[in-house]
Write a structure and sequence with these properties.
Layout: H1 3-41, H2 53-74, H3 90-124, H4 136-166
Length: 167
Amino acid sequence: MNEGNLLDKSMHALAGATALIGGAVLVAIVVMTCVSVTGRGLISLGLSPVEGDFELVEIGTAFAVFAFLPWCHLKRGHARVELFTARFSNRLNNWIDVASDVLFVVMAGLIAWRLWLGMLDKKSYFETTFILQIEIWQAYAACMIGAAVFTIVSIYQLGCSLKRAFS
């Protein structure tokens, strides 16, 4: 197996695993929300909603969004405007991809950096959620996983774009 195939497979495995974990978290949120809504609806029968359900939805959804970013970028799932680029040559389109991938690396790195600083700030103030008293920095740390993988995938995609542009 050559190095390119190993790197391709590694990036797909990393981004895919991150997205699957994000999907599992979303499924858990859906199940928890159904249980909570059912509990609210059947209070007269002695049931109750899940305590802190909205906090869990907020944290889980934030994590899932960051977990899906690497897969979306790896599969080039972001919106593209091809009104003009459809008429451009492959060579010019390859260089447009390079430029957009440079911006993605900058953006992904900036997001990861700011999440890191936000996490450190939340940790220093011991901020917690209102009901469950979950430390907010832990939610930031979970999102950092997706942001870090997004940055890695963005660098990989830039390398792929450069390779196409120079070939």
